[in-house]
Write a structure and sequence with these properties.
This protein is of the alpha/beta class. It has one domain: 2-Layer Sandwich (Nucleotidyltransferase, domain 5). Helix content is 37%, strand content 26%. The chain has five helices and eight strands, in the order H-E-E-E-E-H-E-H-E-H-E-E-H. Strands 4-3-2-1-5-6 form a six-stranded mixed β-sheet, sandwiched between helices. Helix 4 (126-136) crosses helix 5.
C-alpha cells in the first residue's frame, strides 16, 4: 500500500527490518538497502531494463538487465524488506514534473506486486548529491567531462542516488 503521509508510512513499519530506496529512471533504476536497524543505507545495484526508453542493448554491462519490477520483487523477498521509499521527481517549486506520473504508476504496480508499505520521498538533487559523494571518494570516474563536471559510471550514481533517498527517509523517521 502507498502511504501519501510519511508519518502513516512510518507507523506501519515494524521497529526493525531492512528498507529499500528506489531511484526510478526511464533507463536505469537505482536500488539501495538499509541495515536491519536502519542506521545506514547502502547502494545495492542498478537495474537496466524494461522501463520506457530503455536501450535495447544495455551500454553498461555491469548493470543487471531485467524487468525492474520483477527484479525489485525478488530483492524484496530475498532481503525481507519491510518498507520501500521511492524518489518522487518534482520541479524545484514542488510541482509535478513530466516524470512524476510515470513514477507514481511504477509505485502503484510495485504496491500490487508486494505487500510492503511504500512512501514517496523528494528526490530533487539526489543525483547531484550522489555525484558529489561518489566524486569525493573517487569511485571509478569516467574521464569524459560533461557540462563542466566529471561524469561517473551510471551504475554507481543511480544506486548512490537511491542510497541518498533512503538515508533522507531514515533521517525523517528519526525526527
Amino acid at each position: 500500500m502507498i502511504y501519501p503521509n510519511f508519518k502513516d508510512f512510518v507507523a506501519k513499519l515494524p521497529p526493525i527490518g531492512r528498507m529499500m530506496g528506489i531511484d526510478w529512471g526511464a533507463v536505469r533504476t537505482g536500488i539501495a538497502i538499509s541495515d536491519e536497524a536502519r542506521g545506514f543505507a547502502f547502494p545495492r545495484e542498478i537495474i537496466v531494463g524494461a522501463n520506457e526508453n530503455s536501450p535495447a542493448n544495455a551500454a553498461d554491462r555491469r548493470a543487471n538487465f531485467h524487468s525492474p519490477l520483477q527484479r525489485i520483487v525478488e530483492i524484496v523477498n530475498v532481503e525481507k524488506i519491510v518498507g520501500i521509499v521511492v524518489g518522487l521527481p518534482t520541479h524545484a517549486d514542488g510541482t509535478d514534473s513530466a516524470t512524476t506520473a510515470r513514477v507514481r504508476e511504477f509505485a502503484d504496480e510495485l504496491a500490487v506486486a508486494t505487500n510492503v508499505p511504500i512512501a514517496f520521498v523528494d528526490e530533487r538533487l539526489s543525483s547531484v548529491e550522489a555525484e558529489e559523494i561518489v566524486g569525493a571518494y573517487r569511485i571509478r570516474p569516467n574521464k569524459a567531462k560533461k557540462e563542466g563536471r566529471m561524469r561517473y559510471a551510471p551504475t554507481r550514481i543511480d544506486a548512490a542516488a537511491a542510497a541518498v533517498l533512503l538515508t533522507d527517509a531514515i533521517g525523517m523517521m528519526k525526527k
